[in-house]
């Protein structure tokens, strides 16, 4: 069960789930819907694409809305601030929400987010009334700047999109989490439930997972595993992690009762 | 533009681009008409999850029936798809 006393305050509302989920790469829409349900997610991402004449992709919008999910459109495919703003306006119209995962990555090989274009677009989109969640590198300075222009959260990456490499940016995620006044959602690179749990233990407010669930052998079971990991990580963070030490610290009293007989 | 002519001439035809492909349409046609005629959107209820831009400006679905196309318009239609 969710901890009802520990909602995630993000944008203008509270959320019970701290696991945001992407909808890409699933083998079948039914599998995706079942996985989202197993993840117990509330906010799910969608992309936008130009309609090719004569072909229609599976309509995911209707089923996702009917299932009650809140939608988080992304601007994937945008390479500049200008393109991202256009994509955002289209997404708001198509999906009926001002919420936006702002992502601008001009380089198709590593999909590294462009910090300059992202900041520029974020500033404009906030002014246009969007609830902006920017996907960025784990750059503490940039995250602060995005917060200052009014972003509702920051979404630093753990590792390149879809890489499943885990929290390669751990050191910088710590700094971002420590400094942020808005929710920090670790996005991209989370490959295992243990990665998600580690991010939550560090104090991340939420994580976004897509590839690791969608491309698992059993996406539904993996979604459940991520759900549990995120909850466990959050619970551990709230409980306050015990201190680490390079030396052993005994958990049992080190009395000398074994020697007692020899001496007596 | 709409002069009272009895026969179709070049002036009664506009050229627009839809998804990058050129189309010739009767002058005065609305966006809704054009989308239906080109088979891009079914008549009646909107399927949702789609957005449209004319000349790189988003046109809300509520304005499609009123929006009259003019020569040279560039129409782009977008759709929500799976993504992360």
UniProtKB/TrEMBL annotation, chain A:
Residues 10-253 form the Thiazole synthase ThiG domain. The active site is at residue 101. Keywords: Cytoplasm, Schiff base, Thiamine biosynthesis, Transferase. It is an enzyme of class 2 (transferase). 1-deoxy-D-xylulose 5-phosphate binds at residues 162, 188-189, 210-211. InterPro entries: Aldolase_TIM, Thiazole_synthase_ThiG, ThiG. It catalyses: [ThiS sulfur-carrier protein]-C-terminal-Gly-aminoethanethioate + 2-iminoacetate + 1-deoxy-D-xylulose 5-phosphate = [ThiS sulfur-carrier protein]-C-terminal Gly-Gly + 2-[(2R,5Z)-2-carboxy-4-methylthiazol-5(2H)-ylidene]ethyl phosphate + 2 H2O + H(+). Its EC number is 2.8.1.10. The keyword Cytoplasm applies. Homotetramer. Forms heterodimers with either ThiH or ThiS. Catalyzes the rearrangement of 1-deoxy-D-xylulose 5-phosphate (DXP) to produce the thiazole phosphate moiety of thiamine. Sulfur is provided by the thiocarboxylate moiety of the carrier protein ThiS. In vitro, sulfur can be provided by H(2)S. Belongs to the ThiG family. This is Thiazole synthase. It comes from Natronospirillum operosum. The gene is thiG.
UniProtKB/TrEMBL annotation, chain B:
Pfam families: ThiS. It comes from the Bacteria. InterPro entries: Beta-grasp_dom_sf (IPR012675), Mopterin_synth/thiamin_S_b (IPR016155), Thi_S (IPR010035), ThiS/MoaD-like (IPR003749). Gene3D superfamilies: 3.10.20.30. This is Sulfur carrier protein ThiS. The gene is thiS.
């Amino acid at each position: 069960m969710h901890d009802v006393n520990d909602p995630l305050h993000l944008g203008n509302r509270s959320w019970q789930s701290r696991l945001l989920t992407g909808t890409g790469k699933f083998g079948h829409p039914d599998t995706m819907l079942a996985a989202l349900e197993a993840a117990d997610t509330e906010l799910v991402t969608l992309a936008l694409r130009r309609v090719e004449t004569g072909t229609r992709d599976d309509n995911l919008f209707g089923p996702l809305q009917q299932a009650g999910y809140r939608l988080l459109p992304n601007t994937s495919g945008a390479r500049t601030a200008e393109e991202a703003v256009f994509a955002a306006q289209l997404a708001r119209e198509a999906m009926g929400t001002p919420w936006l995962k702002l992502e601008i990555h001009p380089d198709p090989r590593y999909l590294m987010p462009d910090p300059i274009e992202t900041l520029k677009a974020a500033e404009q989109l906030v002014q246009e009334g969007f609830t902006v969640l920017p996907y960025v590198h784990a750059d503490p300075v940039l995250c602060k700047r995005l917060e200052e222009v009014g972003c509702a959260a920051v979404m630093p990456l753990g590792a390149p999109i879809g890489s499943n490499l885990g929290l390669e940016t751990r050191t910088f995620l710590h700094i971002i989490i420590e400094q942020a006044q808005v929710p920090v959602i670790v996005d991209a690179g989370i490959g295992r439930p243990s990665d998600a749990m580690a991010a939550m233990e560090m104090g991340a407010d939420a994580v976004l997972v897509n590839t690791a669930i969608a491309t698992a052998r059993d996406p539904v079971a993996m979604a459940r595993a991520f759900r549990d990991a995120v909850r466990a990580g959050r619970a551990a963070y709230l409980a306050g992690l015990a201190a680490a030490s390079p030396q052993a610290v005994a958990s049992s009293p080190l009395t000398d009762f074994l020697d007692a007989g020899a001496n007596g | 533009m709409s002069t009272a002519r009895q026969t179709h001439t070049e002036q009664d035809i506009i050229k627009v681009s839809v998804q990058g492909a050129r189309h010739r349409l009767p002058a005065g046609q609305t966006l809704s008409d054009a989308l239906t005629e080109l088979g891009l959107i079914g008549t009646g209820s909107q399927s949702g999850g789609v957005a449209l831009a004319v000349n790189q400006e988003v046109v809300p679905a509520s304005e499609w029936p009123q929006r009259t196309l003019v020569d040279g318009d560039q129409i782009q239609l977008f759709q929500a798809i799976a993504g992360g």
